[in-house]
Amino acid sequence: MASKVERPLVGGGRKPAPARLLRVLKGEAFFRGVLAMPMQLLLWFLLIIPTLIVLYLSLVAWEPRMGTDWWQAPFSWFRNYGHVISDVRFWQAIVRTICVVAVAVMLEFTIGLGLALFFQRDFLGKRLFTSVILYPMMLPWVVVGLAFYLLFLEKGPVNYILIHFLGFKAGVAWYHYPVLALSTIILADVWQWTPFMFLILYSGLGALPRDPVEAAMTLGASRWQIFRYITMPMLKQVVIIALIIRSLEAFKIFDLVFIMTGGGPGTATESISLYIYRLGFVYGQLSYAAAMAVLILISISIITRLAVRPLEYEV
Amino acid sequence: MNEERSREGRSRGFLALIGQASRWLGALAICLVILLPVVWVLSISFKPPQEWLAYPPTIIPVEATGSNYIVLFQPGNPVGGVATMVSSAEPVTKALINSLFIAPIATAASVTIGFLAAYAVSRYRVGGTFMPFFTLTTRMFPPVAFAVPLLVYYRLLGLIDTRLGLILMYTGFTVAFSLWMMKGFIDGVPRHIEEAAVLDGASPWRVLFTITLPLVRGGLAATALFVFILNWTEFLFALVFTSREAITIPVQVSHYVGAVGRFYGPQAALGVVASLPVVVAGYLIQRHLVTGFTFGLVRE
Predict the structure, then answer these.
(1) CA atoms within 13 A on the CB side of A203
(2) CB-CB neighbours of A280 under 10 Å
(3) Residue numbers of the domain that contains A221
(4) Fewest beta carbons within 10 Å, which of A254, B48, B155, B168?
(5) Is B116 a residue whose pLDDT tops 60?
(6) Domain contains A75
């Protein structure tokens, strides 16, 4: 961030008392303080206090059904964390979510980059096509989940295409097999968020300076060489931002799973968000869910810190 | 020599035409894939019950009907034979009204608070670099991690299943977007315009509201529409923190899919109703979507 020392907009100067009060109200210090106040109150109310509460909850043994209030619950210190670490379902959900993130984000990036390169040249109706491509990311998650749920029903259009055009003998029961169910979820995510990758890479490519590319061309570089050694390095920062933001978002995955499979069959497609949701709000094991939430908060903070490191030299 | 060159030019023109055509066909194919899921939802929403699972599936309904939409609002209405399946469901009117109430108010609050804070950050560096980056933590983690403590907290404050509770939450969890988007727009306003006003004796409040605000009006609108999309589509908080009184449209969609099972027609119709406002909002701010989703780190 380009830091520049700002001059104060209003200068000092002493005046009589009532005028001085007026001057304070109109003045800069008061003004500055008031501007950011609502934001700070909001952050205290929704970020800092809840974070303290979740830390506290994770250290006590408390469930709503106990009938006592949570601040009266006995401390169990790190026992909840011990349970989390030895919870197989937790690790399964974590690994599964990471797999979904990895596969979905890589697919989105690859397809998005392909589309962005494809759309670099002008052709008839390009603007119209671009706006069609963008609309999935405006849709509510639940509606995307619903749409894909309907597409992959046993008698739905996807099975119809498989049978009639690709020679399958019978329709596939998508929601009965863990891997298939998970891949429908990934597909839905890819469908919805490839446009984001496309848009970010498309505008990134469009904003690159033309000179280096032209220079390389006159020096006889091949298209691949130009792409690999000139375009991609210049695009690096945009790519990293896109990947970080999309990975963080994809890690939250909840709505799609909730709508499409409900985590099923069994718990085979349960994401970590869905597992914490169930622990906390369905099974009522709130302090156990809190410990899990704290572990997630800590690990995401560490990973994000590491991921943004290459950016700090450039931003 | 001359002739040769013109022949070459002609064949190059022909190749370019083929290039154009193949590019165009490619784009068309991509768009069809992208449109299919939503076209399918639209199509089912206009189909009578016997066609929902008809095989082979047809894109265009054989007997198009609006009954799926009517049943959403009047579950007991016998139109189209859907009623017997849906009569147990609640009309969507309440969820629709709630969403129409909660999303705009939370949006207005988020954008106002974000705008003021963005001005403080942009012009006075209030909070240094820490405060703006600290707000991003609201978007970094899975919302469910905040939902756990917020549940006991909200119970304490009596905010469970109230519109106010959701409004507060939505404001807080979108304010990071408002702050960063607005900061980008405010950074774009040249400082010397404000300084000129100050030299003429205007107070900082006056400068903010009569000079800066009108100049970033477009940005404010874009930010508002973007935040509105987020607020309208939010699901997890609404699912956890509402049960009867304050349920929103996305939760209603999930009720339809989960509880009542196989009435695909009204589900699809509700999906269409739930999507309309945000798709309209999205198209109005196409250019700003990337700016929004990347907190203004990448702009077009």
Answers:
(1) 20
(2) 27
(3) 88-312
(4) B155
(5) yes
(6) no
Domains of chain B from N-terminus onward: 2-66 (no CATH), 93-293 (1.10.3720.10)
A232 to chain B, any CB pair closer than 8 A? The answer is no
pLDDT tens-place string over residues A127-160: 888 888 888 988 999 999 999 998 998 888 888 8
What ipTM score was computed for the predicted complex, to two decimals? 0.88
Same domain, A152 and A283: yes
A39 and A141: one domain? no
The Cα A212–Cα A226 span in angstroms is 9
Q: What residues of A are in contact with residue B258 (Cβ under 8 Å)?
A: 259, 262
> Which CATH number do you get for residue A147?
1.10.3720.10
| Interface membership of B2 toward A (CB under 8 Å) | no
Chain mean position to CA A63: 30
Nearest 5 degrees, angle CA B218-CA B219-CA B222? 90
Q: Is residue A69 domain-resident? A: no
The pLDDT tens digits of the residues spanning B204-255 come to: 888 888 889 999 998 999 999 999 999 999 999 999 999 888 999 999 888 8
Neighbours of B176 (CB within 10 A): 25
Task: Write out residues 73-102 of A within 8 Å (CB-CB) of B.
Answer: none
Q: Decide: A197 and A246 in contact? Cβ < 8 Å.
A: yes
Sign of the dihedral through C-alpha A38, B222, B253, A271: negative
* Cα gap B22→A67, rounded to integer Å: 68
What pTM does this model have? Answer: 0.89
Inter-chain residue contact B126 with A262, CB threshold 8 Å = no
Does one domain contain both A139 and A236?
Answer: yes
How is residue B24 written in tokens?
Answer: 């165009």
Listed in sequence order, the residues at least 6 apart from B211 whose beta carbon sits closer than 8 Å to its beta carbon are B193, B194, B197, B202
Taking CA atoms, A129 is separated from A295, B59, B278, in Å, by: 43, 21, 19
Residue among A312, A11, A35 at smallest CA distance from B121: A35
CA–CA dist B53, B90 (Å, integer): 24
Q: How far apart are CA B131 and CA B150, in angstroms?
A: 22
The predicted-structure confidence for B136-160, as pLDDT tens digits, reads as follows 888 889 999 999 999 999 999 999 9
